[in-house]
Amino acid sequence: MISFMISLVALVLGYLVYGAVVERVMRPDDRETPAVRMADGVDYVVLPTWKVFMIQFLNIAGTGPIFGAIMGMWFGPASYLWIVLGCIFAGAVHDFMSGMLSLRNDGANLPTLIGKYLGGGTRNVMLVFTVLLLLMVGAVFVYSPALILAGMWGNPLMWIIIIFAYYVIATLLPIDKIIGRIYPLFAVALLVMAAGLLVGLLIKMPHLPELWNMGDMSQWTANQVIDGKDTLGVAAFLNKNPIFPCMFITIACGAISGFHATQSPLMARCLKSERLARPVFYGAMITEGIVALIWATVSSYFFYYGGWKEVVDPEAVNDFMAQVQLSDGKTLTQYFTAPQVVNLVCSSWLGLVGGTLAVLGVVAAPITSGDTAFRSARLIIAEALHFEQKSMTRRLTISVPLFAASLLLLIWQMENPDGFNVLWQYFGWFNQALSVFTLWMITVYLAHNRKPYIITLIPALLMTTVCVTFLVVSPQAFGLKELLPWAVIAVIAIAVVWFALWLHKDRTTSKL
Q: Domains, the chain, ranges and CATH?
């Protein structure tokens, strides 16, 4: 596990070194924060720093660094590079800068910030775009935990009603009443689970694919060909999902995620000092990257090392081997879903405690991401309509239509046989597309203020290319692959020319 250990050290060094560089760009000082200057007892509330960090970590984590990392490792050890480099140079910068800009603009939400730096037209587009993403987060993160809980007790409809009832309460009540109290506990559970898995990996020390094996995974794939049948299924998966750009969409929250920029303003309204921005925003993203690395390595152990045979009973091994030889038999990557990998590994390695933590990780994480998604949507719409949110009546005025729209989306998802997969694909693309707008907004801000905008310009160009390329080469691309080179070149050229013209215009205006 040399690549894994190097990656862990790199993330820590990234926070200490590059995090300090990025912090110096913004120069946090002792000015009053929105939580102090605009305290309203509902959304603008000063919270202890450790609570703000835990809430930020859980808000941005969800199931992203778990499910995304497990599926991302199917792309091989290249996922280590994306998690480490993406987290340090893109994701953590994205989260820190969006949080700092919110702090400097009275705790403003993302569409408001985009409107200020990219124009009113872009703000209106992003207002709709962001609310749609947050509604999808709410719908996606209701159904999956409801199904898991129904497998333990009850039925999906009962759990959907319970989860939605919690969403209503958490969205409407002041942030320190529920979110401020239970989120830190769930965050601790996620971190303890990750630490336990890290210890398990260090004890087992499995022989896993390393970075220098990229491009030649035959050593691991050949061992899993039985009677001419590829039981692993990675080769077939890669044929349909090329590493670029699919890996960059699959591993989102563990590297960079536009959803994070909708969450940073929530905590910008709870910080008592700007000097806490780096540990809270940059630090939470690095912590999420560490969790993603651990789960990616667990996935590598499970699929490439054959660890699945160690965590299931012999009957389950026989069942898989019997069905894999059938004409419609499933490979390992199709047979075991990400939630199953979490439950099997945690229960086997960590026992009863691990099983409990697995439930908290797989169920509580998406639920807590869903409720803050609705809270963010409420605040974004309120800010756009200039609705104060201190009174319950005003909060209900915005929240009721939001929940109604999400319920309709959820009903469509349940009625459509492939609804969840379709919604998840749209969610993944919308999520990364939002990071594109956020990075360009930050780049414009840095250029306007004569700051080193290169730190976000390069990630902005990368994620722009990723999102455009995914539309062309994804399985739903409708045969547009031949347009890929021209589409990528066109988008990059437009982005660069637009930014150059804006920069020239800004400097000309300054001289005048």
A: 2-435 (1.20.1740)
